[in-house]
Automatic annotation (TrEMBL):
UniProt-listed CDD domains: ACT_ThrD-II-like, Thr-dehyd
Keywords: Lyase, Pyridoxal phosphate
Superkingdom: Bacteria
Catalytic activity: L-serine = pyruvate + NH4(+)
A Pfam family the protein falls into: ACT
Taxonomic placement: Bacteria, Pseudomonadati, Pseudomonadota, Alphaproteobacteria, Sphingomonadales
Organism per entry: Sphingomonas swuensis
Protein name per UniProt: Threonine ammonia-lyase
């Protein structure tokens, strides 16, 4: 495959103009203060399908011949690429088939079908869906639209860099999520052509260091449940790995805790919903502020398609980590007045009780004692600490549940 050039990226920008959002690139004053750097956010989660994937997909579709358009296209995806191809395929009158794993959330299947695509569910893994899509490509004479390992896709994603450098010409560092590598490849080609001195850092989820392994010759284990499923790729692209070797300075990993923290802070501070993959760059900045101190850093919020229930869990877990919500196991004598004494401590500390549960059987305490589990919420961590101190002063044994 031919590596796209800056000319290809400029051509892609002209091709997709007006049909894809030119998303804002804004400085976050609060996140800048937290990191100790000037932090600029590219809000690709504000695309119509809530992800940057539209850029590459549209650039690919617009270059199809009449016969190819008439026969239609096919893609394998369980997420943002599926919706991007389906949406722009419908706009252009191109029949679209998407093959998804059978365990794809129904919401994503429904959203893809709403864009007019024929959805086929195949296998438990992405590899199964990919293999079936390739079979249908040959059987039905369809054009396969790869999610990342395609020069037209890479050129389309490179338009993000054009917009970022136009908005902030003096950026000195770019932090970009890596899955298959299409996003960072397009950005890196554009940046190396226009501002070669900019440091480009790729970010992968700690559980899926596939590109890091390939580029650096590592053997880190790959697999597991990650919040950043959008970049949970076991086999990165062949075209993209070559581009990354040539143009990306280094690849870093972020933990699940750091991904959750970044998603939660973006909601709390920027009032914007970003999926785990989209928050990977911000997660690296927050986890390693000393590395970016004093710099002018840009990162791409590349997608915002996160399940609402999962988002709620992430936000509540963040409240636990920062000490505003706690679960306490309080050992007490099982006698009248014990619960009243406990609740009096909560009242005095200004801590609200959310839920309680008595545990008399499954406990290591003597038979005359009980464990009262209390989930509670306070204005800050100090209030919870003060509560625990009050309870212990009253003679209660307190054990605090921890996330990490």
């Amino acid at each position: 495959m031919t590596v796209p050039t800056i000319a290809d990226i400029h051509a892609a920008a002209e091709r997709i103009a007006g049909a894809v959002e030119k998303t804002p690139c804004l400085k976050s004053r609060t996140l800048s203060e937290i990191v100790g750097a000037e932090v600029w956010l590219k809000f690709e989660n504000l695309q119509f399908t809530a992800a940057y994937k539209e850029r590459g997909a549209l650039n690919k579709l617009l270059q199809l011949g009449e016969e190819e358009r008439a026969k239609g296209v096919i893609a394998a995806s369980a997420g943002n690429h599926a919706q991007a191809v389906a949406y722009h395929g419908k706009r252009l009158g191109i029949p679209v088939t998407i093959v998804m794993p059978t365990n794809t959330p129904l919401m994503k299947v429904a959203q893809t079908e709403e864009h007019g695509a024929r959805v086929i569910l195949q296998g438990q893994r992405f590899d199964d869906a990919y293999a079936r899509a390739r079979e249908l490509e040959a059987e039905e004479g369809l054009v396969f639209v790869h999610p990342f390992d395609d020069p037209d896709i890479v050129a389309g994603t490179g338009t993000i860099a054009l917009e970022m450098l136009e908005a902030v010409p003096d950026l000195d560092t770019l932090v970009v999520p890596i899955g298959g590598g299409g996003l960072i490849s397009g950005i890196a080609i554009a940046v190396r052509a226009l501002r070669p001195q900019v440091e480009i850092i790729g970010v992968e989820a700690e559980l899926y260091p596939s590109m890091k392994n390939v580029v650096e010759g590592g053997e880190k284990a790959i697999g597991g449940d990650t919040l950043a499923e959008g970049i949970a790729v076991k086999e990165p692209g062949k075209l993209t790995r070559a581009i990354i070797r040539d143009h990306v300075d280094r690849i870093e990993l972020v933990s699940e805790k750091d991904l959750e923290h970044a998603v939660a802070l973006l909601v709390a501070i920027e009032k914007t919903v970003v999926e785990g993959a989209g928050a990977a760059g911000m997660a690296l900045l927050l986890a390693n502020p000393e590395r970016f101190a004093g710099r002018k850093v840009g990162t791409v919020l590349c997608g915002g398609n996160i399940d609402t229930h999962l988002l709620a869990n992430v936000l509540i877990r963040e409240l636990v980590r920062c000490g505003r919500i706690a679960r306490l196991k309080i050992g007490a004598q099982d006698q009248p007045g014990a619960l009243a004494s406990i609740t009096a401590c909560f009242h005095a500390a200004g801590v609200n009780i959310i839920e309680t549960n008595h545990q008399r059987i499954f406990s290591k305490l003597p038979a005359k004692d009980t464990v009262i589990e209390v989930e509670c919420e306070a204005r800050d961590a100090q209030a919870i600490d003060a509560l625990v101190e009050r309870l212990e002063q009253k003679g209660f044994v307190v054990e605090r549940a921890e996330l990490d």
